[in-house]
Amino acid sequence: MEKSKGTQPRAQWASSLGFILATAGSAVGLGNIWKFPGKAYEGGGAAFIIVYILIVAFLGMSIMLAEFAVGRRGQKNPAAAFEKIGHGRGGWIGKLSLITAFIILSYYSQVGGWVLKYIEGYLMESGTIYADPTGYFLGMLGSSGMPWQSAVIYPVIFLAMVVFTIIRGVEEGIERMSKILMPGLFLLLIVLTVRAVTLPGAAEGLSYLLRPDWSKLSFQMVLVALGQAFYSLSLGMAIITTYGSYVSRRENLVKHTAIICSLDTVVAIMAAFMVIPAVFAMGVQPGMGGSFAFISLAEVFRQMPMGNLFGAAFYLLLFLAALTSAISLLEGPVAYFVETFGCDRKKVTCCFGIALFALGIFYTLSQAYLPLKGIWFDGANGLIFPPFGDFMEFLTDRLMVPVGALALCLFVGWRWGASEASREIEHNGRFPLRAIWIAMVKFIAPLSIVVILIGGLVFGLA
Ligand code: PFF
Predict the structure, then answer these.
(1) How many domains, the chain?
(2) pLDDT digits (tens, 9 = 90+) for 406-418
(3) Which residue from 102, 108, 269, 325 has its CB within 8 A of the most atoms of ligand 1, so it is best to mutate?
(4) Its membrane topology, per UniProt (predicted)?
């Protein structure tokens, strides 16, 4: 089935389940498990969760459907799909999104490497982590204490897994991998959540999450929820478009989109119920910084009976989530090169692996090594996130993703035409809530994205 060059048939998902698990695999990632719990905590528990669900149900689902529609109608990589539907115009939207995916993957794979190191760390040397969580984290990044090799080797192993999966193709690689990894992820998440909510002292965290604190409802909180929903659903990066191009015309896009968005949201909420009660029970400050998952959680596992095993299981969960998301981020750029320039899939994937590593390693090293050399380290405040990482995240999350998503909505809503696009979405002639979808794609989604863009750029929100 796997073939995409010239006139040969395009790769397709072998089954609906494979398609759902692969796309859910893209959506469920570090964003759900690492970022969502802290945001839910800061956003007033259930108040944030309710706002988030509403955003996913209306905006998130609408944009995901629009992306799927472009992919399935185009039957090509994102750049070519936009160009084909836009009669020669709009290819830049796909290209921009692919560049965004490449940049995000360069640092996503570094964090994937850190997670791998922590699985080993909790199994082999949990005492060292507990003794000095910050030192262990910085050491892993190459500053001191630990051999610098771990800063390089683990991201390489992570990237190698991504490259290996992509080389094997859509059905044999991505789909098969998702069918193995995703059930494992759900199982682990259930076990860890049950453990967390039954810890002595977890009730306080549970009631914090369940009681909506509406005093936290603000413009900023809604912006944070919007940004989180886009990131979590993998929108604005042409990934959903790419995966949509492998979907057969028989599949019901509305139903599948609803399932994928629900799965992603359920995982995020469960992750909040896993992290927040445990953090409350152990008296740890549920901080939000990027180092939270690596530094603050050490205290939780230290106090927990068999904490090192639960620690290893937690990082395994993060690893599974990160791997399937990283795989999706690489498929789009690879498909583009294979289809546009006739490149060999294997060679182009390996080249991407090397380029991603070369760019990403600056991210890891800039977290600790360079700062400690006195370049970006603020002695008074301890660990600060340095310019390189900040710059990359700013560029992608605040600028490129919203611009890509805005362009997508305007393209589908106005250039392609929402009613024409809705014909791609309908199944057996039916498309429930078609009118609402059209209003969303033409007016409400573009407006909301403009607000995110301005909020993110001017006010530094989201
Ligand atoms: N959705 C992933 C997460 O929540 O971590 C991140 C991501 C993957 C974003 C793939 C975008 C993407 F195309």
Answers:
(1) 1
(2) 999 999 999 999 9
(3) 325
(4) Multi-pass membrane protein
